[in-house]
Amino acid sequence: MLFNSIEFFIFLVLVYAIYWFAFSKNLKLQNTFLLVVSYIFYGWWDWRFVFLLMLSTIIDYTFGILIHTKKNKKLYLWLSIFNNLAVLGVFKYYNFFAHSFQDMVANIGFHVDPYFLAIVLPVGISFYTFHGMSYVFDICRERSVPERNFVDYSLFVCFFPLLVAGPIERASHLLPQVVKKRNFDYKQSVHGLRLMLWGMFKKVVIADGLAPSVNSIYADYSHMSGLSLLIGAFYFAFQIYADFSGYSDIARGTAKLFGFELLINFRFPYFSRDIAEFWRRWHISLSSWFRDYLYIPLGGSKNGLAKSVRNTFIIFIVSGFWHGANWTFIIWGALHALYFLPLLLGNKNRRNTGEIAPGRFLPGIREGFQMLLTFGMVCLAWIFFRAANFSEAIHYISSIFTNKFRSGMEVKQFIAPYVFPVIGFMLLIEWLSRNSDVDAFFDTISNKTLRYSTYFLIFFIILMFGSFQKASFIYFQF
Amino acid sequence: MKKFLLKAVSFFAIFIIAYVVCLFCFCNIMPKKLQKNVLYLKNSTGHLSTRLAEADTCSQVDVLALGSSHTYRGFDPRIFRRHGISLFNLGSSAQSPIQTEYLVKKYIDKIHPRVVVFDMYYTILQCDGTESALDLFSNSPGIDKGLFEMALKVNTIPAYNTFVYSWFKTLNRQNIKEPAIKNNDTYIPGGFVERTINNNQYHGQHIAPAHFEINELQLKSLQNIVKILKEKNIRLILVQTPYAPDSYRSVVNRDSLDRYLSSLKDAEYYNFNDTNIFKNDYFFDFSHLNSKGVEVYDSILINKLFPGGHL
């Protein structure tokens, strides 16, 4: 079930009404109900994978208790990690390794025919396995205690707004909310609706609006002019941001309607002044996951520069690989590690942790230049992320310089007159919210008529310029 | 909670009214390029406005032709008349069974045909029907319940937006008469649109393979049409009007369409693409017959379906 579908709207209204009107006085019933509807939400896509989700939940639930109660904590932790990675390995990475092995052997003159699995990648598998892993890690490190109530634990893993594309929650953040009685909060609900509205705008107007142009340009990149290829790279940067952050906004907004606060996943990453700041603002729940459960256990930056560099490359490459079983994602991650390197070596990676353009409407010249440079670097890396394979990415980049820069009217087909205004509108609203959050930004509009007019304007833009082709979210595939 | 729900409901109620007003103003002020989700196609390709006006005055014909542009560019009433058969052509651009069902319900008792010929271009059975719905909303003389039901059935934002805008336009109707000749198209009384270009400008261009997949909503409407016509004892003939051979061959699973349509009860089915007669020089693009092609097609069709002028 897609957030941008009529099915989800009906589902949400029904679930919301039953949740608050029928079960508001009984937490157990509320949680059981949310769990059941979460399975329905997931099963809407393919009911068979509900069993895989249940199995993954049972395994981590059991290992959580075993790690806490048994003496040999590390053994159970490794068994749990092995289970989670095995599920990911089979469904997501097996064919990649088999292909890579086949290619590698072919390079030295041998031919092998490995067995390839004909299986569908279950939606959200990377998200819910990482959910489960963070839970067992935290128990092992005694940062949290296992949840004995299976329904409550299952809800922590399967809560429908975050089930298929995050944010990747932590037990210490979400579980206390699951087990605590939730009361209806007017302000929280209003903030939830605002976030959903803004997320829908980003998904339907920006991401889905840009998708056809991006697809056409990438599908025929060798015949496109340099300008069209630059537009393709620029559009994809906004497509993926609007798609994923739009999803996260809708997820957070939906959770708020049910009394939950989810982790913020994006903090306006394209206003970042360097790559280190970009990674503190992009897919925060994943980057902080790798920081806490991979980078720090590896020693972080505390064991000398060489190990610090090694650890940085490891987390960026693993983060790339998390996105998909393809060399393009690994190169995308490695490229970001390379971008990060000068900051790390110069000890400047925490230079830009403060507010952006504090107290000013516009950034300074230096800040503006830094933002543009960072954005340009990110756009270049996105080409690897979007391309079907490494050679396509290289050809795409070289074609920007070798193909004719402008080719007649070609570029016009990719520049509908409303595209730049709607991107500009998104950037304006996000710029005004840059040091807080979009839902909080609306609170700064003190005039009620103006505030409601802004809601109306966003709705109007969605209905006038949105694309409603039931397009799935890009991050579902990860 | 009550306050929240009350405010949300009030906002949506006010929103709907404000949206309709703003939609009307926006479409009247802004250039068409900016109207992404409102496609008001008044007097656009296909002469639907003129055809619907003529349909209102038409009564008692032998054959009623329905379907997509293949219909209004493929069935020439002048050729049928030469064979002693009267024909009215009620085709419209991309007309899918959802629209055909509406037109059948609205016009069948008025036009009272003895035979209905319905063109089955494969795309009309798989599309969602938006394109043709927009054409009908924009060119119908008035908005009625059937068109509203069509908007609900098609269920897309452009369909709703255009429906609302067209409704406004009918309230403030400016009768701009549609010219009989537009670009290379000439409207011929009886619903036919004649294209003056005869050479196939698209021959040789690569056509990507297409895969036919039936849309359940269209299927349901097709079944409704069959039922309505059966109840009225009207002969229903489903045909595949020829389209350019390259284009026809590009439909990978075209046999499945033949199988399905042949299996329909209470309807005859003929595929004229399988005759090997219609080469590329019978078309003016990858899809439509030119005047030479129409002449040949209509003669073959009449001789096959109505031998000796018998219906």
From TrEMBL, chain A:
Q: Where in the cell is it found?
A: Cell membrane
Q: Which residues cross the membrane?
A: 6-22, 51-68, 75-94, 114-138, 150-168, 221-242, 313-341, 368-385, 414-432, 452-476
* InterPro entries on file: Ac/AlaTfrase_AlgI/DltB (IPR024194), AlgI (IPR028362), MB_O-acyltransferase (IPR051085), MBOAT_fam (IPR004299)
Q: Which family does it belong to?
A: Belongs to the membrane-bound acyltransferase family.
Q: What is this protein called?
A: Membrane-bound O-acyltransferase family protein
Organism of provenance: Flavipsychrobacter stenotrophus
Keyword match Ribonucleoprotein: no
Q: Which UniProt keywords apply?
A: Acyltransferase, Cell membrane, Membrane, Transferase, Transmembrane, Transmembrane helix
As one GO molecular function, the record gives: acyltransferase activity
Superkingdom field: Bacteria
Q: Name one GO cellular component term.
A: plasma membrane
* Protein's GO biological process: alginic acid biosynthetic process
Q: How does it sit in the membrane?
A: Multi-pass membrane protein
Keyword ATP-binding present in the record's keywords: the answer is: no
Q: Which Pfam family, just one, is annotated for this protein?
A: MBOAT
